[in-house]
Amino acid sequence: VQFVESGGGLVQPGGSLRLSCAASGFTITSNAMSWYRQAPGKERELVATITSVGAGTFYAGSVKGRFTITRDNDKNTVYLQMNSLKPDDTAVYYCNKQPRSPEWGQGTQVTVSS
Hints:
The protein is mainly β. The chain has strands spanning 2-6, 9-11, 17-24, 32-38, 45-50, 57-59, 67-72, 77-82, 91-98, 108-112.
């Protein structure tokens, strides 16, 4: 199982980014998929989840209404569209499946700063 996250960067408050997670070693249609983030000095937290079938989604309260998780089953890839970014969104973002794999990708750094 492998996850390769990309799309992070430096963005000003109020800006947008789209993160991608290319999964391999399994088929994402078999699992719900999630995005997590870890800010400096803090524990990793769940940000968003999308179900394995249909388009059911869950969002942490801090990102609800600003972030959107989607999936492209043909590409075995999960996305996280992040709008109205805030400095508190600064973190390394990771994806994983549900149930969670012990194998994590390298993550992608998102920095929100003016």
